[in-house]
Amino acid sequence: MLRGNYTARVDAKGRLKVPSAYRRIIEDRWGPQVYVTSLTGEAARIYPLKEWETIEEQLSLLPSMDPAKRKFLDRTNYYGQVGELDGQGRVVIHPLLRSSAELMPETDVAVLGYLKYLEVWSQERFYASRLSDPFTDDDAAALARLGI
């Protein structure tokens, strides 16, 4: 599973060097192919391609005109591109997504593990989003219902 937070940088060519702890897990479990996308444009999501294909299989069960399916695919296709971890563990983030998510070259980004995918945030934007959306008692109660 992908967990924790590592600091990384996007280089001048728009490539993120995936932290080695994540890289090993991704390549060993899923291989080097990935799908880089976003739902909101605020952060990049890096899915192992096999995990993304599982999501597509689930979506294919819905009618083609299902509004939620179309909205999800509109966004993930708009920001998305298939990629591959190169020999140094780098993956290109599409210029449109880099700009939207404020993943500027040569600045620190937070790479967070979300079990089966990674999210890449600008450090400043991530910190601001945590302040504007704090963990609440309702959140704790929802997790408690799951036994967490």
Task: Show the helix and strand layout.
Elements: E1 5-9, E2 15-17, H1 20-29, E3 33-37, E4 44-48, H2 49-60, H3 67-79, E5 81-84, E6 90-92, H4 95-100, E7 108-113, E8 118-122, H5 123-132, H6 137-145
- Trace the largest sheet across and list its strands: 1-7-8-4-3-5
Number of separate helices:
6
- Please report the total strand number as a whole number: 8
Q: In percent terms, what proportion of residues is strand?
A: 15-25%
Estimate the global geometry from the Cα principal axes.
globular
What is the radius of gyration computed over CA atoms, rounded to a whole number of angstroms?
Answer: 16 Å
Commentary on this structure:
This protein is an alpha+beta fold and 148 residues long. Helix content is 41%, strand content 24%. It is built from six helices and eight strands; from the N terminus they run ββαββααββαββαα. The chain has helices at 20-29, 49-60, 67-79, 95-100, 123-132, 137-145; strands spanning 5-9, 15-17, 33-37, 44-48, 81-84, 90-92, 108-113, 118-122. The protein has a six-stranded antiparallel sheet. A two-stranded antiparallel ribbon has the order 2-6. β7 (108-113) and β8 form a beta hairpin. It is globular. It starts with a strand and ends with a helix.
In short:
The protein is an alpha+beta fold and 148 residues long. The protein has helices at 20-29, 49-60, 67-79, 95-100, 123-132, 137-145; strands at 5-9, 15-17, 33-37, 44-48, 81-84, 90-92, 108-113, 118-122.
